[in-house]
Write a structure and sequence with these properties.
single chain, 172 residues, alpha/beta, six-stranded mixed beta sheet, 7 helices, globular
Amino acid sequence: MKLSGRNLKRRLYGLKNLPDRVGRARYFRGHGVHSPFVYSIVREVFIVSELKNSDQQLFHALRSRNYVRRRAIELQNLYTHLGYKAFAIDSLDEECDLCILSESCSEEQTRAWVGEAAQSGKTVALLSPYIGRERQQFCQALIEAHHCTSVDNRGYILLFSDEKLPKQHYKL
């Protein structure tokens, strides 16, 4: 006879994500991040829950594509914090500093754009890296091949292409 409506299997179901959560906990709120660049991003961008600047062009562009409000705020604050001048969504323009690639881009197109952005010193944000197993493996391969710092924030992965930054990967 059960004492409650939930059996043991259902109670332990939430533990399947425990290794991922423990791996990310070491960088909680920037603790354990030994890069001043990434630490400032964590403290000034990821923790802040409101838009920091009156310029909301990127925020509105992401919201018009039905992207999550919190992640749109984070990307807008990143854009402002790093002093970027132009952005592109699902394309790679010559003038853009921040290239945002959604899951609707093909793998070949994404791989080509990430390579071009790395050569020209642009930052790439890969949206929805955990939408499926294939997408997750593809994004992991891009991280491993990337020559510079990368930051995984669950909702997107940032691939920086500054030559001053070392090859490091942070899972926040």
